[in-house]
Amino acid sequence: METSEVERLIEDGIEDADASVSLPRVPDEDHEDAHFAAVVVSPAFEGKSLVQQHQMVYDALGESMTTDIHAMELKTYTPEEYGDAGE
Predict the structure, then answer these.
(1) pLDDT 10s digit of each residue in the chain, 87 long?
(2) Pairing mode, if any, of strands 71-77 and 35-41?
């Protein structure tokens, strides 16, 4: 699975989301260890706990979380939090 496809799934599944997905480590050619890292910014996260925000991302990724993605590092922000974090 390509990073652009992971971004598309997240952005399609969460209202007004902006996702930036990367590969945080060099893939192991001998294994299918698809490790991704995502920064997701969305006003839909407003008022939600961190666990709820991450669940929204997992829900957006759907079955890919069990078939194509081995691990996902997540950072989720509301637009205000993202601006304050200086990311």
Answers:
(1) 889 999 999 999 999 999 999 988 766 665 556 789 999 999 999 999 999 999 999 999 999 988 888 889 999 999 999 887 755
(2) parallel
Burial class (CB in 10 A: 0-12, 13-18, 19+), 17: buried
State pTM to two decimals: 0.86
Record the tokens describing residue 77, joined without a space: 């922000």
Distance in angstroms (rounded) separating the CA atoms of residues 57 and 38: 10
Please tell me the distance from the alpha carbon of residue 66 to that of residue 5, in angstroms, as a whole number: 15
The whole-angstrom separation of Cα 35 and Cα 72 is: 6
Return the domain boundaries, the chain. 3-85
Q: What architecture (CATH level 2) is domain 3-85?
A: 2-Layer Sandwich (3.30)
